[in-house]
Every structure is written in C-alpha cells, then in structure tokens.
Amino acid sequence: MSKTKINDINRNIYDIKNKDEYDFKIKKGITKDIVEDISKQKNDPEWMKEFRLKALEVYNQLELPTWGPDISELNMDDIATYVRPKTSLNNSWDDVPEDIKNTFDKLGIPDAEKTSLAGVGAQYDSEVVYHSMKEELIKQGVIYTDMETAVREYPDLVKKHFMKCVPIYDHKFVALHGAVWSGGSFVYVPKGVKVDIPLQSYFRLNSPESGQFEHTLIIVDEGASLHFIEGCSAPKYNKVNLHAGCVELYVKENAYLRYSTIENWSKNMLNLNTKKAIVEKNAQVDWVTGSFGSKISMLYPMSILNGEGAKTEYTGISFAGEGQNLDTGFKVVHNSPNTSSVVNSKSISKNGGKCTYRSLVRINETATHSKSSVSCESLMLDDISISDTIPVNDIRTDEVEFSHEAKIGKISDKTIFYLMSRGLSEEDAKAMIVRGFAYPISKELPVEYAVEMNNLINLELEGAIG
C-alpha cells in the first residue's frame, strides 16, 4: 500500500521578504565591544550597561547544552545581534514605512487591532516600530509599552523585576539574551484592574544572518487580570537565523494571566526561547502555545508556584515536518500547599520530522495537598517520523495527587474506515482526524490565532494509510 503523503504548509504569507535595508546593523559576533556598542545605540542607563557586560561574562563561562537537538551549526561569529530598521517608534500605522507596514498588513495585525485588541506592539528586527493602547486602559493606570521606554520611564519597576524571574545563570542563551536584548514589551496591570480585551505584540525578523532578542516583562498586580498574546514569524533564508527571546511573567496574589503565543518561524531559524512565570498566592497563569516552523526549537515554558493555592495550566501543540526538530515541553515547580498544575501537550510529526516532549514536574516537601495532571499525546503521520516523550516527575511528598499519561501513535486504520463508511472521502477523513487532534489547543486561542493555527495544519492528504 502507498504511504500517507502530507503536503508542506503553504508559507507564502510568512515568507514575505523586504530588502535588507536598515538604519544600523551591528557587526557580526559577540564581544565586549559589540555589547558596549549595542548599549550605546540603545542609550542605556549605566545600570543596564553593567548588566549587559555581566551577562556577557556569564555567556562566555557557560557551555552549550549537551542534551537535546544538535545546535553545533550555530556560529555567533555569523550572527548580527542588533539591527535597527529605518524608522523610529510610531503610534500611527500611517507613519510606519510602507514596506514594513505592508508586511504587518499581510500578517493581519492592523485588522486584528481594529476588531479584537486593546493594544498592539509590532517589532521589526531589533526595534518596536509601532505601539498603541486604548485610552480607557491608560486611564485605569495600565502600562503597555516597549521595553526601552520602560527602562527609561519606569526604572524602579523594571530594575526590581528585570531578569530576576529568568536569571542570566539559567543557561548560555539566557546569558546571551541578557547581553544583547533589544525590543520587546513591558506590561503592568495595577491592583484590581481587569483587562477584558487582549493586548498583543508581534515580532517579525526580516534581516538574514541576524538574531532577535526581544524581552517581554509582564506584571499583573494583586487581583488584576490580563490576556496577553504574542506572535512571531520570519521569512526563509538559506543561512541560520537565531531567536533567543525571554519572557518573564509575575502574577501577584489573586491575579490571573493568560499568555497565548503562536511561534511560526521559518526553517532556517534556531528558536532558543526562554519563558518563565512566578505565581503567588491564589493566583493563576495559563499558557497556550503553538510551535510551528523553525529548524530547531528548544522551548520549555515554566511556572513556579510560590504561593498557597497558586495554579497553572499549560496547553500546547508542536508540528514538525521534514528537516525539523522541535524539542518542547513544560516545567512546573510546586513550592506551596494546595497548588495545582494541569499540562496538556500534543505534537504532530510528518515527513521525517522529530517532536520531543521534555517536561519537569517537581512537587517539593512544602507543597502538601497539591495536585498535578500531565497528558502528552503524539500523532505521527508516517513511518519515518519520530516522537519522543522524556518526562521527569520529581515528587518529594506523599500528600499529593499526581497523574501522568502519554500516548504515541499513527492515524488509525479503523477510524479512517469508520469515517469513510459515514460518507467521507479518505482525504477528508484524515484531515478531520488531524484537526480533531489539534482542536483542544485551537479552541483555547483567540479567534484570529485559532484561524492561523488551523491554516498551518490544514493538511492536504492523499493516498492510503501505510
């Protein structure tokens, strides 16, 4: 019998390339002079310059990870860590240069802002080029701005939190990020304020042989709530690009944060992103994540449940095709009593792609009467693809409820036969199974992102099951 064939995702929208024109591009490599030049270009305060140089020291001391995908092809001497586009920060799309505005138009960002968002930030290469927020949120004291503005205008708030949740010693690429970070978003939601309409930032990398190192810092104060959305994409080049962003989330007592993201990088991208949340008493953070594109991803969002009654939920999907190795998962640490975590992870692999689910659940002695439930499912669409599950469950007290379930399999012949007996064609039956597999993830996303995700996995199937 012939094998199932899945056609590649049509990336025409995401592979828009503008000319590599810029106002300034740092020379390639990572040295003290380069870091000092970035700091000068950013007009950093002295404390930030010193922080960058300390991070560079740590970067030079730390080794590359010896586990996970092989990232030896990454040569920092070939990567420009800062690219400033030919524009400044604008609060009107009319002031954004035409080629950059057209890119975001085709990605649907201005339309989404009009219909379903309370604020938008748009980054192009290393700088935020557009930012806006609805007036009513400003009146409520909500702060939503780019990170450089936050460093200048809210120094005490930034210094208290910047890279405290994700310390530069975590791993080599966090240290690199600390040295060369640029762009990103800063959000502060005051006590008791409920932001009912999501905020969104979108990060677009255009310049080849470069890196994007945006920093996202979100603080949701006591009793407040927020839904924050991030999107990422880049066109395909024949040389390596690097993404090593950082996300720090602080969810204070009785607060709620939902963080949704679709990472849709091109297949020359190494995606080495780091995301972490600190969750206080009776607070909750929910993660909704889709990982597509990229040649290699190493991405493991983490929740640290520090307060009694703190909660977290993770809902994620990854999709690996030919030449892709997506090593993703979730980490949670229970530090207090009566905390809870729910993890629901799914992956799809095809045409020899590799998906790995790598997780950590640690329930410390202090986290009595806590609960954790982990479910990871993998769907392989042919017999040359790979799916691995590598969980670490570190339970240090008996007074807990814990469950872990893992399923790995191919599309079922019996299910195909049943659906065909109900009148569907073979291709439609297969497509229905794949969409149904992904539905628990897509239903958690905002409408425009659910549409994007469904487009990304709108697979055309032909032939029979092997």
Measured by DSSP, the beta-strand proportion falls in 35-45%
Class by helix and strand content? alpha/beta
Number of domain modules: 2
Which bin fits the share of residues in helices? 10-25%
Annotation field: number of helices: 11
Unreliable spans are 1-10, 459-466
Intertermini distance: 6 Å
Radius of gyration, taken over Cα atoms and rounded to an integer in Å = 22 Å
Major sheet: size, sense and barrel closure? 13 strands, mixed
State mean pLDDT (0 to 100 scale). Answer: 88
Shape field: globular
User: How many extended strands?
Assistant: 27
Describe the overall structure:
This protein has 466 residues and is of the alpha/beta class. 51% of the residues are buried. It starts with a strand and ends with a strand. The longest helix is centred in the last third of the chain and has 17 residues, at 426-442. The radius of gyration is 22 Å and the shape is globular. It has 2 domains: 10-299, no CATH class; 412-466, no CATH class. The chain has helices at residues 32-41, 46-61, 98-107, 109-116, 135-139, 147-153, 155-161, 172-180, 413-421, 426-442, 447-456; strands spanning 5-6, 24-25, 83-84, 119-124, 127-133, 143-146, 184-189, 199-204, 211-212, 215-220, 225-233, 241-243, 246-251, 256-265, 269-271, 274-279, 284-293, 296-299, 302-305, 311-320, 325-334, 340-349, 354-363, 370-380, 386-395, 400-410, 461-462. Mean pLDDT is 88; it is low at 1-10 and 459-466. Strands 6, 7, 9, 10, 12, 13, 15, 16, 18, 19, 21, 23 and 25 form a 13-stranded mixed sheet that branches.
